[in-house]
Design a protein that fits this description.
mainly beta; 1 helix; 113 residues
Length: 113
């Protein structure tokens, strides 16, 4: 006889709308010295999988974490965007290959009580 398994979890994650864009491309008006050198905000080397998140997403995506949007892996958090940006994930794009910003959703874990 099979016994049903009941999984008890905390509150479900909330969905949060974000804008996915790119940075570090030729002619980027927001580029900074580190980005021009291929470095993140911790003087770490950026690569093809590097992403930056806006400061308001620091708690959701700590440095080095995997970033998922719409349920799919987008890359790894290796940098932080312009402090004025909100709800933004930016793909490091030194060759300018990224085409078109888009809106997406991320899962934000419920806050612990």
């Amino acid at each position: 006889m099979l016994v049903p398994l009941l999984v008890v979890a905390g509150e479900p994650a909330a969905k949060r709308k974000v804008r996915v864009t790119h940075y570090g491309y030729p002619g980027d008006p927001n580029v900074n010295r580190n980005t021009r050198l291929g470095l993140g905000d911790r003087n770490n080397i950026l690569n093809k999988d590097s992403l930056a998140v806006s400061p308001d997403l620091n708690d959701v995506f700590p440095f080095g974490s995997v970033v998922y949007v719409n349920g799919a892996m987008l890359g790894l958090r290796h940098d932080t965007t312009n402090p004025k940006w909100r709800n933004t994930i930016a793909i490091y794009d030194p060759t300018g290959a990224f085409k078109g910003d888009f809106e997406a959703y991320i899962d934000v874990p419920a806050k612990k009580k």
